[in-house]
Design a protein that fits this description.
The chain is α/β, with parallel strands linked by helices. The protein is built from eleven helices and 13 strands. It folds into two domains: 180 residues, Rossmann fold (3-Layer(aba) Sandwich); 132 residues, Glycogen Phosphorylase B (Rossmann fold, 3-Layer(aba) Sandwich).
Length: 330
Amino acid sequence: MYVYSLIPCLYDETGHHFIYHKTFSEALKINNWKHIKYIPKECQIANLSKDWKRKLILHRGSKKKSLWNNFFKPFLNFFPFFKILWKIKKKRGEQEVLFLEYFTLAHLIALFFAFFVVRPKCLLWLLYRTDLNQVILKGKAHKILHKLIMKTIGEKNLIFFTDSELLSEQLETFFNKKFIVLPIPHVKVNIDKIETKKKKNLIFWWPGGSIREEKGLKYIKDLSKKLVTQKNINLVIAKAAKELLDDNSNIKYVNTNLNFDEYNSLMVKSDIILLPYIAEFYRLRTSGIFVEAIAFGKIVVTTKNTWMASELEKFDLNELIDKRKGSYFK
């Protein structure tokens, strides 16, 4: 069986996409399934194996917002999508699966047209990880495209996934389709090989290079002010946030774009992982960093009414959930 992942947003090792598909490959090997990853030509990751194919057009809409970057440019992936589907159609051998764990409306439109023209015999796996209230037209356009794709390739050949039990309830109700919960994979790391030194201060880390309000920037600003008088705590943050915070000797800045080894090293050294995400955005949405932190055996502190909070509540870890309005570590 062949699984072809389309990853139009992969630019470098930051974010979850590279690690996700690297780990996904390891999982597929257990069943002796082959995994081919199609990535943008502009991808900056070097020394990739032959199963990583540079064929797609890069999508970085979240960093450069415009109609061109958010719609027209990603739609141009119709052409590589067409070529990939044509290649699948010509094989006529083992079962073929096309898998997208991240896509925009423009990608889905481009994919529909590619399927409509080529009409290959394959499965399409779509993974949704975003609350429909945060999606353009609240998912109505996606619902129409699902119907069009199913008419093209057959209803049984379009299979839906999500990585959140909470989100699956919303998606199944709206789309009237079964959504399979596919847990977030994480890479096995040999922690013993990561060199650690004795440290004087506790390390509180707010992970990620994407400094956004939905990630809890407001709470981090408040927390940084409270730490001015603390002498035994270091708040570790990406350099991208430096201009947004007041000068504070307790704040330690790290590279915004950490590579795989740097990220894992800092995860090992940290005492507490801060995920003060806003409930409006993360009520149903998962967090790969949360899963990784748990896998590393780290203490995670998060905010109420989020997916992370619901996972902690399953194990009676309510003390790790900040439930006070407008505060974080008050």
